[in-house]
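Repro:
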Amino acid sequence: MVFRRLVLVRYNFVVSNYFLNLNPYSFAFVGFVPKPRIVTAYTGTQRLIEFSSYSLKTNSNPLNLSTDIDKELLIKIIEEEHWDDPRIKVLLGSVLAPIHLSHFLVKLRDEAPLALKLFNWFSNQTGFQHTIESRCIIVHILFKARMYRNAHENIRTMLTLNPIQLSDIDVFDILRSTQRMIGTNPMVFDAFFGVLIEEGLLEEATDCYYRMRKFRIYPKARSCSNLLYKLSKSSRGDMSRKIFVDMIAARITPTVFTYNIVIDVMCKEGDLRTARAMLLQMKEMGCSPDIVTYNTLINGYGKLGQLVEATHAFSELKEVGIKPDAITYNALIDCHCKYNELCKAFGFFGEMRRNGVKPNVVTFSTLIDALCKEGMMREAIKFFVDMRVFGLLPNEFTYTCLIDGYCKAGNLFEALKLVDEMVLVGLNLNVVTYAALVDRLCKEGKVLEAEEVFRAMLKSNVAPNCLIYTSLIYGHFKNKNMELAMKLFNEMRGKGMKPDVSSYGTVIWGLSEHGELEEAMITLGSMEEINLKPNEVIYTSLMDAFFKAKKAQEALKLLHKMLDLGIVPSIVTYGALIDGLCKEGSIREATYHFERMKDLGLVPNALAYTALIDGLCKSNCLEEAEKLFQEMMEKGVAPDKVAYTSLVHGNVKHGNLQGAFSLRDRMIENGIEVDLHTYTSLIWGLCEEDLMEEAKGLLGEMIGKGVSPDIFVYNCLINKYCKLGNMVEVYELQGEMRRRGLVPSNGGSTMPDEGMG
């Protein structure tokens, strides 16, 4: 018997899944030897192979495979479900069963329900596997009969096969070649394209799109929009743009959904100019923007801080007759809060309520977060209460904002009350909540409690972040426990967590505070090795540590390195620099950097002024110090206690007691408490001028104001009374010293420079 059959294969000899593991030339078990002849090439390496001129040489009766079951008989067998018909059984037992099925399906191309019934019966037979060819044929038949749901299900089944089975099979080519057998609508390819998208096979879907375009098969705008949406959600905005441009070129008319996706992609990439151009283009094409279009633009402008443009888009939305919704107002409130326009944010909140748009949890949480960041905790709690009046339940974010706000305000008690409430209502603490608690506890020196929170977090399967480790490291350094701090830092890196600039900065600060400057410099070097750029805070803490260690040259080297790296020094950096140079006695260099700071556009703060005033006073440059003090006042920088004390000290040294007491009076007028250093200077000055009654009276004043005199104050008075021969006062003062737990000594009465600033 002669068998002629066209079989679709790809690459070598893939006619069915049965052949995948077989040698194409070893068919002795069925008694025939194939003689393949290539007759037509469809696409790529896919070919039609015609099995011709071969005879079945089985020991049973010969079977004419191509004509044994005609269409009428086949229909009757299926309708009456005579699945035990010998002809069917013989075919099912053959290795070529999938090929027979494809042949039967082609015969039944106009009998879709029967074709599907036959296809499903074969599917349920043990050991039987469909070829991609037979699956594509049934899809075409179903699509032609408008049985779209069944067609989609079969496409999905085909695509969810074991990837190994599909790895060398070009389903698109097979679907295209089998279309010629059935003669279906080209939209079957759009269905195939759509299922690829639904299954998340985006690379395959993109390839399918371009192959459809190549063969002038145009997918529906809806399918293209779905692909653009999925691509945008998988961070492949560039591909979304490319396909959108191709859609326009192919005259596939985009819908408002399509434009919204592309505008969203542009906004997320920060390309608001193109996003705006897209809005104009869609209007020109007769596609009316909707609320989603404008919300996307408003949110995009807001994220970049372009608040004027966001407000303009909002006005345009209302002009075209679209009513703003909660998402619109939330976007406006959020961006104005983030860019410190809190009054305008509350203005939008008021408008929202006047227009009958109900605020949601996001609205209240955004405002609560902004109030907390401004330290306005009372107002934040009021909104927290109002939320519930509106019937809204606070979520994790709401509670975390308040807990973080209270922690930053130093109110740990209220923060912990909210944590208890949060747990009570069944909300889980997240890593931000834990970080806020650990940070506050460490700043208050409660490191043991912070570690308890840390352990509770690990028990709750919440992974710690850099901030939590950094807070704990800071807490241990602050508690003078350098070993535990470094252990945590190494543990952090050992777990594969990459410390950030803040983490390294804390470690460098801690090592510097403990006098481990060499180790601190090594840590700085390790930052540079991993291309993590230190900031001005790190360099400032190191410079300050080197100045305190009497290593001014090393501190200045760090300043020059900082400048070479393009790191701009801050006001704090210059404050530390000026203070360090003044303490080293390098007043002229300190003055140079003070002026240099102003040349760079930095406005000196109280620390910088005070450091230089103190240095000038100690270097007997009182006139310059007083001029600087006057400049400080004129610039609106309020002098602090140290600035006043330094000038009092300088005036006393120059014998200007009247000026010193005048400064003391100004301190009191400005609400600055006179401290031990100021009283000491004044008492010493009075003693030097033999004004003992006034000096004794000032001692009584300081004690009356709760300032405890130290040994130096008593010695000033005792030594002067000794010189004046007034031993009664000497004994009285020595007795008072003993009552205060101070041991009388024969200390001198030299001017106290140390500790005065």
